[in-house]
Amino acid sequence: MSKYIVLITMTEQGTKNIAKQDAPQQIEETTKILEEAGCKMIDHYILMGEYDFVAIFEAESDEVMMTQLLRMNAGGNFTTKTLKAFTMKEFAEIVKNSDLKDQKCNSCCC
After folding, report:
1. What is the mean pLDDT of residues 35-40?
2. What pLDDT does 31 receive?
3. 110 contacts: CB under 8 Å, gap ≥ 6
4. What pLDDT is attached to residue 27?
């Protein structure tokens, strides 16, 4: 399964709604819905700074993840930026299977 890092920013609507609703319960309910659709939330954190939350997901495919992101964003409570993540093992396999070793770099930094 692919892994995704989702950076979440609350909208003005979302900030107003968080005070009216039980945020931890909402996160739990959202997690259940995502898992039923093929996404698994591995972990999530509340942040201070540019982003309000970060969540780490696994999904069966990019299409499954994208569909769930569209559903999550449709409520208007937050916006997301999503990064596809690779483990070091996956990265090593990508490098191993690439032809990077045979490439000659014409860049000034090599």
Report:
1. 84
2. 79
3. none
4. 76
Structure tokens at 47: 């942040």
Handedness of CA 82, 86, 91, 94 (dihedral sign): negative
pTM of the predicted model as reported, rounded to 2 decimal places:
0.79
Q: Give the per-residue pLDDT at 105.
A: 61
> Residue 82 domain-assigned?
yes
Q: Residues 6 or more apart from 68 whose CB is under 8 A from it?
A: 34, 37, 38, 39, 59
Measured CA to CA, the distance from residue 4 to residue 86 in angstroms comes to 9
What's the average model confidence in pLDDT over 46-56? 95
CATH code for the domain of 42: 3.30.70.60
Residue 60 is encoded by which pair of tokens? 């069966």
Domain of 60? 2-88
Task: Report whether 65 contacts 4 (CB < 8 A).
Answer: yes
Residue 85 main-chain phi, psi, to 5 deg: -115, 150
